[in-house]
Amino acid sequence: MTLLFEQLLNGLQYGVTLFLLAAGLTLVFGIMGLINLAHGSLYMIGAFVAARTQAATGSFLLAVAAGMSVAAVVGMAMEATILRRLYARDHLDQVLATFGLILFFNEAMAMIFGRQPMMAAIPDFLSGAVTFIPGVPYPIYRLAIIAVGAVVAAILYGLIVHTRIGMLVRAGATHREMVRALGVRIGLLYTLVFGLGALLAGLAGAMVGPLLSVQVGMGDRILISTFVVIVIGGIGSIRGALAGAMLVGMVDTLTRAYLPTMLKMVMASTEADGLGAGLSSMASMILMAVVLIVRPRGLFPAHG
Amino acid sequence: MALTRRAAIASALAMPLTARAQAAPVKIGLVTTLSGPGGYLGADIRDAFMLAADGGKLGGVPVQVLVEDDGLKPAQAKQTVNRFLKSEGVRLFTGVVFSNVLEAVAPDVLDDGAIYISPNAGPSSLAGKNCNANYYVVSWQNDTLHESAGENANRLGYKKMFLLAPNYPAGKDAITGFKRFFKGEVAGESYTKLDQTDYAPEMANIRAANPDAVFQFHPGGLGIAFIRQYQQAGLVGKIPMVLAAPSLDSTILGAVGDAALGMDVTSHWNSDFDNAANKAFVASFVAKYQRLPTVYASQSYDTALAIGAALQGSGGNVKDAAAFRKAMLPANFQSTRGKFKFGANQHPVQDWFGLRVEKGSDGKLALVTKTRVLTDRGDAYSDLCKI
Description:
The complex is a heterodimer of chains A (about 300) and B (about 375). Chain A is mostly helical and about 300 residues long. Chain A has one domain (about 1-220). Chain A has 11 helices and 2 strands, in the order ααααββααααααα. Chain A has helices spanning about 1-30, 40-55, 60-80, 90-115, 140-160, 165-175, 175-180, 185-210, 220-235, 240-265, 270-295, and strands spanning about 130-135, 135-140. Chain A has a two-stranded antiparallel ribbon. The radius of gyration of chain A is 20 Å and the shape is globular. Chain B is of the alpha/beta class and about 375 residues long. Chain B folds into 2 domains: about 1-140 and about 275-340, Response regulator (Rossmann fold); about 145-265 and about 350-385, 3-Layer(aba) Sandwich (Rossmann fold). In chain B, β12 and β13 form a beta hairpin. Chain B is globular, with a radius of gyration of 22 Å. Classes of the chains: A mainly alpha (about 300), B alpha/beta (about 375). Chains A and B meet through α1, β2, α9, α10 and α11 of A and α3, β8, α8, α9 and α10 of B.
């Protein structure tokens, strides 16, 4: 039982990381109609810049701020110089161009920081573990990630539901052409939305640095899961991104933790381990397929 | 101008045919993983190989090394190798880090009658029944790495172990190898994903199983993430860890720091090995690249030396695979491991050592060689191989 609770927290924490990435990706996809494969690169940039800043200054908060702002600046520059030309093109051109950006950023990071994985230390005020169930110490840092995710979700909700820019974002996600026809400076809106998405990706990268190893190509792997999240949640919807991220986080974590044990009840131990590992890595894809059968536009579609 | 060029052509034509053939360097295709989580492993393999081939020669024979990244993608590696075979005329291949990539690449190379010499991956699938006269492994057969860890766990008196490895060929070889020698009880067995970076669910399962010790195989960046999260989960100092060399190389050690203190590692090579070849290798690697060589670098350096010996013995003619083999099998080179020989399936027969992470007098962490765990160990598949 205590184990289940711990695994639920793990699922929540993974879900939060996915949400930070998915929020930006879903807005860009929903509002500008742009498939941005290079979103994972912004996550990587955030992680590298934060790890480097922390190594140089020793301040974790400064590192997170640096990771976020550099990712946001790179994101906006990328939008203004390259991606803006792709909005009118079809998705295949976008995939090709942004895939090229992935290669570019991976090599650039390797040239600047080297191929050796970098490490960020957990700051003193977040290190250690709390024991809120006897016998199950849970790392404070992972709780902090969950808290940051909750705060970001609340801020995004306020921003999108209660502000003028949020109204434009919502309008853009549902009727893109109409917003343009009404004379809104759509170019500026696009850059701002892209910057926000990049900022959140940078935040996610900076936050996971102390957990994972910061290395070239780290964004490519999480990008797939992020796309699964926004497809499940419904493209263009922040609420969908949150729900999708939590679902994928939980399903991935819980199947990894429990599927092999459950399979062991019906088959030999070694086969159960192998099969369990295989099935759990498929679990989020199976979830996506099921959601698409039941609700082809995702759980919370933004477009009418 | 025109005159000199004509003169140059004339003199080239006048050169005897054999002399011109020798002047063309032997092409070596080094396809390895230079990007992603395994990126630094491939970089060490490339750099150590280049160190041995300094001056463009191996065993006195001019060589040209063609380096390509496989991105840890079997399909990408296969494509590159086929391009090297068909358009570059490469007959000699090396470099692959990961077993799943090698399983895709090796058949193409061998079916074409070309030669493959592995500096790292040694999957069981190519070590037994499907062994090949033109396939050599200088590093180890995958299982033996972890057999040594299993034997080390016996030696350290652990009775109940929790085992973890990624779900790919070398991960399965790891668990098989460990269990082949480990005599105690297996408390739990867990296969992670090769692209996994967050091990929180596994940490919770380890704590729940409460074993005497944990054995895990996570090479490169995976291992860094694993050990750091092991520490964050409060398991360091509570449940000891028994590892094989790839799970705690010098780069991982540098990244995880004090979390690794006291961990037991088994290896066929360590930077502190007291032999002339190794001392020269470590010193020149550090001088050229300003970092400590990992175990991958040592293997790649040995691979280059082995190739050098074979090229020298066969006169640099790699088109004659039989002559190359005759020169290769005696392993006429000074290995950084001290002693080295090939077994019946052309995988190494070598000694395995127990190392421990200790803090040196300078306050820096280092892997220190403590004892010999296995002597002249070949591998479990050699008997199945009929060459």
